[in-house]
Amino acid sequence: MYRLPKWTFLVNAAVIGLLLNGCSTSQPNTKDATPDWVANPPKNSRYVYGVGTYQRIDNLALAFAQAEQNGNGQIAQQLRTRVSQSNISQVEVTQTTGEAEQVVRNDRLYTRVYTAPIELEQIVNQERYIGPNYVYALQALDRSRALSRLRQQIDTLDNQIIEQGVLLADTIVEPDWPIYMRLIPDFAQRTKLVEKYQLYSQNNTLYHDDARVKAIESKLSDAMNQYHFYLAPSSLRQALSVAFTDSGLSTSQAAATFSVDTDIAQRQQYQNERYYTFIDGSITLSSRNGDTIGSWQATGRGIASQPDAAEQKAKQEWAQKAVIKLLEHLSSDKY
């Protein structure tokens, strides 16, 4: 049988070693001298840096994975601190311009609808270091790449909003309510993207809105002030009124754009010196002319040392869940 010469195995081993080395992103530094970035992360206008650490264990891959995750968290914390400081200033400016009430209403409306989660992206590992007791990872967020992608996402969403906006009448009219409702999740998602843009920018730079988009959002706010929900008399009327207001929607004691009815079953039990109240039932939404738009089930539970307090908590929970389901349905593409 023919046998390969020994030098063949040596060459193959060398080639495999080169290939493996070429696939790694950053090789851990095992020098005795601790790199400067461990104590003093680099600073420049393009990147945000974070240094993550983790206890040195036998499984170095796992240790570095945890260190990188901790470094990512450090970057996120830096960005959140900058944005929270900027938001305080922005709220103060908004209040001085007399637009605070509208901003609060929009925020309540946007937070009640589902939006796709936005993750911290464009973070890469630049260096690693293995110390005597800990491993270290230098993580970096590329601002320019992140901002470029966000601009593309916001522009795409703006085009969708403008396409819907051209379908609206010049004034607020009731037949346009499906269009306005569909705009709610678009603006909610846009708000998240713009906040993230501010998060990634070096000086918390505000995103410059398209004038057409700002005009459509202003019309949306006016429409939500004019599209009222009439709450039919029931034991849940007060709790529903609070839930609608918390969601940025307006209620009325007279005939309105929408009518809301409830059909519930309530029970209470006493156990271990506490009262438990359970509410199950439906909320039904109808148009001004009486046509049923939809009906949704919701449940509520309240626990307290007093029966009235337990009942109140159950009503509040039921009302909040019911209104969220109603709003999510109205803002969907079903109309």
From TrEMBL:
**So which residues are the signal peptide here?**
1-28
Domain of life, per lineage: Bacteria
Which UniProt key words apply to this protein? Signal
| Official protein name in the record | LPP20 family lipoprotein
